[in-house]
Amino acid sequence: MGLAVPLAPLLEPGRLLDVGSGNGSPGLVLAALRPDLRVTLLEPRQRRWSFLREAVREIGRRDIEVLRLRHDEYRGARVENVSIRALRLPSAELVGLLVPGGRLLVLGREPAAHPDLEAVGGTALAGVHWRRRRFT
Length: 136
Fold this sequence. Notes:
7 strands; seven-stranded mixed β-sheet; alpha/beta; Rossmann fold
């Protein structure tokens, strides 16, 4: 849980959409730390999707939604938080998933600049980048 512990309090209340959830980091870990969040995990690969479904059952959070989808196939409501780790997706493909004022948490390489996203402080952890969707 290491890295997720200091990040969990920085998430906005509401919903979290974890893109490319893979082994559950950070989405599943953040869900365990923040039971107040409504969490959706997106994972298109069969084996990892199956693993995530079983992990959700094991931690007892039956309210966590695990969808076998890519981010560009997601048709649900916009969310207050989007997390992504170790995926190189353009910011333009992620900003549309956020409500105005919502936060994008990127673990890994810093996301490319986007006119609708502004940098947010809150952590000095290496490899952790926060962006907020502008209210425009």
